[in-house]
Predict the structure.
Amino acid sequence: MSIARHNLGSTGLAAMFVAAMATSAANADSLGLVLRPSASLVTAGQTVDVRLAVRHQTTGPFVAPQAQSFLALDVVLSWDPTKLQFLGLSSTGSIPMLFSYLPAPAQDYTGLNEFNPPRDGDLFYTGATPLGQPRNVTEADAQVTTFRFRVLGTWASTEVRALPNRTVLAYAETIVYDGTTPGLGVTGTLAPAQMRQCIADQDRTGAVDGADLALLLAAYGQPSATADLDNSGTVDGADLGLLLAAWGPCQ
């Protein structure tokens, strides 16, 4: 998904900082946001870090990367709370920031941060670089913060994504602010973090093999928390098909 560049409208927390601190200069091209999980193959109970980074985006395959910069950003984050439990933020591995946080429920005008930490599958994050120090982004991504989750239960796949916008109590949007032009939004592509579980690996050995087949056949025709791979309520031919399709090392 690509967000069109636009001038500042309704102000968020980062937006108010931008309006106060940015200096005018030439417009930048778009800067995308990418979410990267510390592991794409996960298991129930595992803690997974999803890193948020700002990425330079070229305008074509033969265009050399140009230095771009950002001053601040607001992010509306979304996930499935039945599959992932949000634990909090971490600054490990991130660039220095003036502020990088989730506004507390009492101070969050958006209504997205209903609890600390948010529990309902969405949140509002805001951050800004140190005063007078916009962050340049060229070939290398700039990691801004890390969202930490715990994996809940067993499921096939899920995503953590930045939403273009969302309204609960007030309109909130995901936006990256240019480091040179006051209030200019230069948000590009929003890339989600994708995770999956090797659900056919019932004994958690890291591979789908004869032991998993034996477990499925032993539960055939019955309900099972592990062998009912498609969550239909009964272990049947569909589950056997899923297991055979996943045969071999979990990848």
